[in-house]
Prior knowledge:
Radius of gyration: 25 Å
CATH class of the domain at 199-376: Alpha Beta
CATH superfamily of the domain at 199-376: Dimethylsulfoxide Reductase, domain 2
Helix content: 25-40%
Shape: globular
Strand order of the largest sheet: 5-4-15-14-13-6-7
Number of strands: 26
Number of helices: 24
Strand content: 15-25%
Bound molecules: ligand MGD, iron/sulfur cluster, molybdenum atom
CATH topology of the domain at 199-376: Dimethylsulfoxide Reductase, domain 2
Amino acid sequence: MAKSLSRREFIKIGGLGLGGLALGGGLMNSCANMLMEEQAVQLGLTGAANGSLALSPTVCEICFWKCAGWVHTIDGQPWKITGNEHDPSCNGRLCPRGTGGLGAYLDADRLRTPLIRTGVRGKQTFREATWDEALDFIAIKMKKIAEEHGPECVALFTHGSGGSYFKHLLRAYGSNNIAAPSYAQCRGPREEAYMLTFGEGVYSPERTDIRNSKCLVLIGSHLGENMHNTQVQEFADMVGNGGTVITVDPRYSVAASKSKYWLPIRPATDLALMLAWIHVIIEEQLFDQEYVKNNTYGFDELRQSVKKYTPEWAYPITTIKPHIIRETAREMGWQKPATLVHPGRHVTWYGDDTQRVRAGAILNALLGSWGRRGGFYYPNKAAVPKYKYPAYPAAKRSWRDAFPGKYPLANLALASGICDATLPSPERDCSFKGWLVYGTNLLMTLPQPKKTIAAMQNLDLLVAIDLMPAEITGWADVVLPECSYLERYDDLRVSPGRVPTVALRAPAFKTKYNSRPGWWIARELGLKMGLEKYFPWETLEDYLETRLKGAGLSLAELKEKGVVELPQRQPLYFEDGVQPEFDTPSGKIELYSDVLASYGFDPVPQYTAHEEPPDGYYRLLYGRAPTHTFGRTTNNPILTETMAENEVWINTKVAELNGIRNGEYIILANQDGAKTNKIKAKVTERIRHDCVYVVHGFGHQDKRLRKAFLRGADDAQLITKVKIDPIMGGTGMRVNFVTFEKVVQAV
Ligand SMILES: Nc1nc2c(c(=O)[nH]1)N[C@H]1C(S)=C(S)[C@@H](COP(=O)(O)OP(=O)(O)OC[C@H]3O[C@@H](n4cnc5c(=O)[nH]c(N)nc54)[C@H](O)[C@@H]3O)O[C@H]1N2
Ligand SMILES: Nc1nc2c(c(=O)[nH]1)N[C@H]1C(S)=C(S)[C@@H](COP(=O)(O)OP(=O)(O)OC[C@H]3O[C@@H](n4cnc5c(=O)[nH]c(N)nc54)[C@H](O)[C@@H]3O)O[C@H]1N2
Ligand code: SF4
Ligand SMILES: [Mo]
């Protein structure tokens, strides 16, 4: 370790990256790598004379943008991680979190060996076990559940690349109940809204052509705090090129600070604003008439339906003045079709989220931005054949059977739904007896954590596969330590983008402690369960080689290049003279949806009011900080130095009214009496008076996370109420209201 950069040096760099963010258009820490080089020279770290430098390709796992990078080592010791210059997902620059990715490897609090619970569930008493013991324990329990209840009674919750092996394992075992919180707690409503409108989803990374956009409308999307790499780079470029930004946010976000218009909307009323925009764009004929005529279905119904939604109608609801609604609608019209109404990503807000996002999709359709430069491009994905396995056994039941007639347009399993269906209820049989939880900290991630605990208490088997002793691992029967992404191979990254690429993650370091890569864990478990025909490969290198061969590539090439570009498969934009086709029932962009109508939902979005906070209470809003990813980095020894705890943003007048001083620790209590740890008040004009804001991912409750334990507050503890989207089952979580309590000092 003597020759690697010290933590302090890393932090300075992270801090500088952030300075760039606050100061202007330079939103990325492009200077960070240069500075690292400089410091490396000072430390005598450069050149083979001082040690042998090596590079190995990686794909970042600190968030799900999946930037490709290089891990630099000196004499096998960690030095730094930089972006891969040939990767269109990062353009050679990682965000500050990715740069701090070494912290995931270095964290001394990592899980070190398999653990088997010894006392009652939740009491956190475990004994260390060998891999053999731990996997035998799981295999025996899973076989028993399959015999007694059927394999469908085991569900997988997963988030992150290694989840793919466990999906495969579960399907081979006979269950299709695979859920990710990134659907019903994140972007599910967006995918369904765009599917209904355009016949395709937005996908990840988003197909947004921000780089070429002339007018960008951000409705709650807090780019710059939401640090999804190339989106932020393109946003900075677009601002630098003089593009118009319209930001709708009750909080003066980083994005708002780069905007021509900041619309500090009353939370929960965005749909009213969007309907008024549609009204103006239609009435003032600001829409793309030819595009709408050729490509859309239901324009007249839409026009009739939004007649009533005038800016004057929207004003008292949203608090946005009518002339501002008109002016911003005209800006959008002038720049069309290079006007991009950003579809958002985390969109599970108020329970009518599919309809709200659909209103944005309709705006994009009217402005003709779908399939056009500066709007949404048509993504290209590399043609890399899947590994050929024998067919999976047919699953007899699915999570859907627990919800007859509900959430008809959910295309993926609901993490929250599986949790509900694990609780005994007179309405349904208790369907789930076993949970495998890979890389998702359900107690922070799902709303209503008490319900999650009650559900877990009904299980015959709970396995957590994690890097860290996150809260979920404290409830598990068996805890399996995965090694960090820097110590393992993973499946190829074949993400959609402007150009089709394949990227490789290879191990840069030997596996630390008694941890193992996900692929190894899933395979060993499969072998113990008699599923060897589904694991014909022995190492992931064999598996990768087979897949790459199918695309005319090799592992050696990927190891050398990290990222390989393959031929383009479709044009990015609609071509002149070619009539586009849409995978919707009408074959057109559906402004009016017969599918929604057939299920009894509004075929064009209609406004319904949401509950407002009672007196003395404020709506709880939450979001991201540039140097953290949820709770997965809040114990990272490098990233915690940039931000160690969260604060609660409180409007200056509200703070005065409640006698709260800036920097004072307070406790947040919600409408149901749920309370947080103490959290620092940030008294600011940058937020409306009717809401407060916290960054999600802090306030860890597990003391094994020594840096994160009780640092700041966890918003999930206050999300005791949800409003469920009837269309697809997403859990609207911004429907909770909080008040403040003083921290009583111990005498
Ligand atoms: N209250 C509230 N809830 C939310 C949100 C919110 O803002 N507020 N956001 C929602 C959104 S948008 C999303 S996408 C979801 C995200 O939810 P999750 O993806 O579940 O996010 P985390 O809570 O960070 O959980 C990540 C877990 O993965 C573990 N981990 C990290 N690296 C590895 C690894 O390499 N291998 C393994 N096996 N485990 C690893 C971490 O230790 C941690 O336990 O949460 C949703 N839920
Ligand atoms: N640094 C960092 N970046 C990340 C992540 C991370 O953990 N860390 N996570 C990634 C993931 S998985 C996701 S899904 C995205 C999430 O990021 P986004 O999709 O951009 O954000 P949201 O969570 O929808 O929204 C947060 C913003 O919405 C505002 N807001 C709250 N309520 C309302 C409202 O009623 N109306 C309007 N108009 N605005 C409102 C908040 O003030 C805040 O600015 O970020 C991604 N990027
Ligand atoms: S955006 Fe940042 S954290 Fe996310 S994958 Fe890229 S470098 Fe890693
Ligand atoms: Mo998300």
